[in-house]
Amino acid sequence: MLPIVIAIVLILVGGVSVARMVWSDAMSASAGGPDIDRFGNGERANRAADARNDPQSARCGGAPLSAPRELRGIWITTVENIDWPSRPGLPADQIKSEYIGWLDLAVQRNLNAVFVHVRPSGDALWPSRYAPWSEWITGVRGQGPGFDLMQWMIDETHRRNLEFHAWFNPYRGSQPAPSGAGPDINALAPDHPLRQHPDWAVVYPSVGTTGSRLHFNPGIPEARKFVEDSMLEAVEKYDVDGVHFDDFFYQYPVGKQDYPDEDAYRKYGGGLSKADWRRDNVNKLVQEMSQRIKQLKPWVKFGISPFGIWRNDGTDPSGSPTRGLQSYDDIYADTRLWVRQQWLDYIVPQLYWNIGFDIADYAKLVPWWSAVVKDTRVQLYIGQADYRVGQSGPWSDPAELDRQLALNRKYPQVTGSIHFSAKSVRADALGSVSKYAADFYSTPALPPVMKWLPNRAPVAPALRSRADGDKTVLNWTGKGVSAAVYRVEGDKAKLVATRRGGDGEFTGPKGTYCVTELDRSWNESPPSG
């Protein structure tokens, strides 16, 4: 039990990233919609080859278009300055240059999405009517960097044709002391909403317990509405591609301490058991956010990255063949229901365990999650544990992640991966990232189409090409949000680059090329060439 106790304490101290890291380590120590097209030879069949999505009609120099269709992302966390910025209080130029460094890494590794932590603890990385500026930027709670950081980040991300998913923690109110305000409301920024509404605040674990912090009470409807409004403000103001939550709704349990929401339960419980009421509170948040995002901007994707176990099959025959913490029972997150109700566009279970781990075997959880999303429209991406590479045991093998990505490819429902976190991808421990990138991310990829989002595939661009020695120079004009460049290689025309905007240029080795246009949902035009 000692490793689990230590892990829980560290979870509370470290926040989201440590929760991801430590819980899987503690478990290791405790060891006691329609289907989506399958990969063929590591590549997704290119969809949307013309305005009617007929891939058979798309040809480039007589060869069919071939582009991987998968989401490839990294999490960039700001809490505790784990990924970015490297420390609080940096000058604006350094804040910007560090962020551009993460984008350059994503481009280098042929990724197509970043998931940026913009609401770590009831705060914001944008000038907000609902929340103070995050302390992880300037080092001062409530003080901004002097420019609209969110707008700048999105512009730079889109300039590289990467998706920007805004990552929110809905109910966190503070980080543990001493780096955060801990359980002390008066230590929050003067304009923090919990100082204005102390009746919304919950302290958990209790004062005097390591990791004690403030939370918005999920059981108070007014608090839930305020939290939703504060996140939707970013959707309304900015051109985000997605709204993203991780696994923090109710706090992970600490010993035998119960979450102190008895007053709210008496007032709002409505005859449900406390556990069912808590689950219903979280379900309402997910359902309402799903509806409100689509009412505001139908093209914005909504996804959640939950703890990797819904329930164990020893508790529920429908559960996974695992023996670990259960999100349904322990943190009141009914993750399977969210998929079955199709409140989400995508789900990213955090499968931070090795293949063969007896408590939570990666090789058994991937097929279980694949079965959950089967016959729904919800896309399944896998949360990959890059941070674990180099640890003792199976993670001392640099090929562990390589094997996991190979296993993902065997299940047609798995349409992407997100890697935790950016600094681990950059560190490339044991050469593991270089290995899986060479094997699985050697070319660019287009994100998978979500057919239920707005579908406005543009017309083919007007393309001009010319020879320049041993190079071919392309210039095109079009009306898409972005463009894809294909080069004929053997019997296929393979994706070699993407560009933001309808107009663009590309220079490559001498050969036969075509260009397509894409809308913001990645629906593709016929090729020009």
UniProtKB/TrEMBL annotation:
Keyword Lyase: no
Superkingdom of source: Bacteria
Keywords: Signal
InterPro entries xref list: Divisome_Glycosyl_Hydrolase (IPR052177), GH (IPR017853), GHL10 (IPR003790)
Pfam families attached to this UniProt entry: GHL10 (PF02638)
Domain Glycosyl hydrolase-like span(s) in chain numbering: 70-391
Biased composition (Basic and acidic residues): 35-53
Chain spans, region Disordered: 34-63
Protein name: Family 10 glycosylhydrolase
